[in-house]
Known about the structure:
Shape: globular
Strand content: 15-25%
Amino acid sequence: xxxxxxxxxxxxxxxxxxxxxxxxxxxxxxxxxxxxxxxxxxxxxxxxxxxxxxxxxxxxxxxxxxxxxxxxxxxxxxxxxxxxxxxxxxxxxxxxxxxxxxxxxxxxxxxxxxxxxxxxxxxxxxxxxxxxxxxxxxxxxxxxxxxxxxxxxxxxxxxxxxx
Length: 163
């Protein structure tokens, strides 16, 4: 894993492969649109968050949000298409965790997503992932026509120590 800064024989920088850690500590993953492939990514990111000293509540918040973002990318974005990939980038510091999940699907308009708390949606079995991500994370941003989500979770413990 420690070869993220290496170069190809042609002298060009090599992009990190699945699961490599870049020089700045950013973990990068590329997975198939297969729900079973998300477990390893979740474990590695959550282990880094735990090592960085985040609270159990923050760890839970990131776990739920990351799981929802990955499911959305695989199932709703890429429509389980084996030819499409999901790209994940996570940077974990003692102060903040940033996670980016990007799919290769058509995207979506956040404003058009039905409100899961609306009476007509309360009994539906799905449709709460975005609400969970936006509730548990400190910041959630969508870009690339909704194909990319960037989530930030600040470490409350680190903020309290700084005061």
